[in-house]
Specification:
It is found in: Cell inner membrane; Cell membrane. 68% of the residues lie in helices and 7% in strands. It has 400 residues and is α+β, with helices and mostly antiparallel strands. It has a domain at 87-157 and 271-395: MetI-like (MetI-like fold, Orthogonal Bundle), CATH 1.10.3720.
């Protein structure tokens, strides 16, 4: 006797449900959802207990404190600030100061690291030994000690303002910092700035065209002379045509310190030097290993065509080595940004010192302030990673 349609359907339902439980995709989704739920409950419990404890002690919570008057000064500000501004303003001041030292450190560390990495492979014994000694010394000394060295042993040993080391009557170096003239923009200076912007954009466009032309025809374009003419020559022509509208404000000694011009505080200089030199020692080894990873036959083939060593390095070796260099280089950039939080040790007003330090001590709202500070470093790291990943895809080898 054949089973009815109803009996067949009733037998298939348990079989389908059993198959679903043994389905790897279904089980992975379920387990991940349960893990996320447990993690969410864990953090909710911690935050709820913390808020209840703070409320029991009479400590305020929330972000209303950001609108309160700060009441303290900051030594270095890239935006307008004084004691009457709010704690929210101190957050932005600290954020910009952290971004400033991070960007400066990344630029200088990259230049110095590439130079030392290439010097490490030099055929000149003295140059290669010097690079090796530099790498071994600065890579193996703790960063905090290097910051102390540059700040206390070097910069704090400079003379006072009245005995400043000077270069002419324009640049002065003393224990309070480095002072040099500041540009003063008069009427017509916008034309000069516009010419500079046009020159930079034109240089980028011509460089892209020159690279495509070289790939198609093999002919090279003298980009250095073109860039010099557009970026330097064009603004100079506009500067003289408009009657020299940009002047300079020179620093002048008044009392015990200089007034006017642009000043670089010693805390910024010490931190930038230490971060750059320390990180460059690691970048140098990354560059050295990346160059060594390129097949030596590539170098021999380029030199057999008559290319000098400098052009072989620039046109053949470095472009191939970048595919190996960039991923670990990104990690060094992230480390430099996070290591900038050591600025608190010498009083540089970065985010940790100004916001997670002074502001936290005054308002006492640790959860909000620490969460905001962590969020800033996370955002900076993710932004750096995203930009480096874009560049990595650009130089990556594209398979046909």
């Amino acid at each position: 006797m054949k089973p009815t349609t109803t009996q067949v359907a009733s037998q298939e339902k348990p079989a389908k449900s059993a198959n679903l439980l043994y389905n790897p995709t279904f089980r992975s989704v379920v387990f991940q959802a349960l893990a996320l739920l447990a993690l969410g409950l864990f953090f909710y419990t911690i935050v709820d207990n913390a808020l209840n404890n703070l409320a029991a002690r009479g400590i305020a919570t929330g972000f209303d404190f950001l609108n309160q008057e700060a009441g303290f000064g900051i030594g270095l500000t890239l935006i307008e600030y004084d004691e009457t501004f709010s704690y929210g303003r101190t957050f932005y001041v600290g954020l910009l100061n952290t971004a400033l030292v991070s960007v400066l450190g990344i630029v200088f560390a990259t230049i110095l690291g590439f130079a030392m990495g290439i010097a490490r492979l030099s055929s000149n014994w003295l140059v290669s030994r010097f690079a090796a000694v530099y790498i071994e010394i600065f890579r193996n000394v703790p960063l905090l000690l290097q910051i102390f060295f540059w700040y206390f042993a070097v910069l704090q040993a400079l003379p006072s303002a009245r005995q400043s080391l000077s270069l002419g009557e324009a640049i002065f170096l003393n224990v309070r910092g480095l002072y040099f003239p500041a540009p003063v923009f008069g009427e017509g200076s916008s034309v000069v700035i516009g010419a500079l912007i046009v020159g930079v954009i034109a240089t980028i466009v011509i460089n892209i065209w020159a690279n495509n032309r070289q790939k198609l025809t093999g002919q090279q374009t003298p980009m250095f002379r073109i860039a010099a003419g557009l970026i330097v020559g064009l603004p100079l022509v506009a500067y003289f045509i408009m009657g020299m509208p940009i002047s300079a404000e020179y620093p002048v000694l008044k009392g015990f310190n200089f007034r006017g011009g642009i000043s670089i505080i010693p805390e910024l200089a010490a931190l930038t030097l230490a971060l750059s030199i320390y990180t460059a020692s690691f970048i140098a080894e990354i560059v050295r290993s990346g160059i060594n990873a390129v097949n030596h036959g590539q170098t021999e083939a380029a030199m057999s065509l008559g290319l000098p060593r400098s052009r072989t390095l620039k046109l053949v070796v470095i472009p191939q080595a970048l595919r190996i260099i960039i991923p670990p280089l990104t990690s060094q950039y992230l480390n430099l940004t996070k290591n900038s939080s050591l600025a608190m040790a010498i009083g540089y007003p970065d985010l940790v010192s100004v916001f997670a330090g002074t502001t936290l001590n005054q308002v006492g709202q640790a959860i909000e302030i620490i969460a905001m500070t962590m969020g800033v470093y996370l955002t900076l790291s993710l932004l750096t990673s995203a930009l480096m990943n874009i560049y990595n895809k650009k130089v990556a080898l594209v398979e046909r």
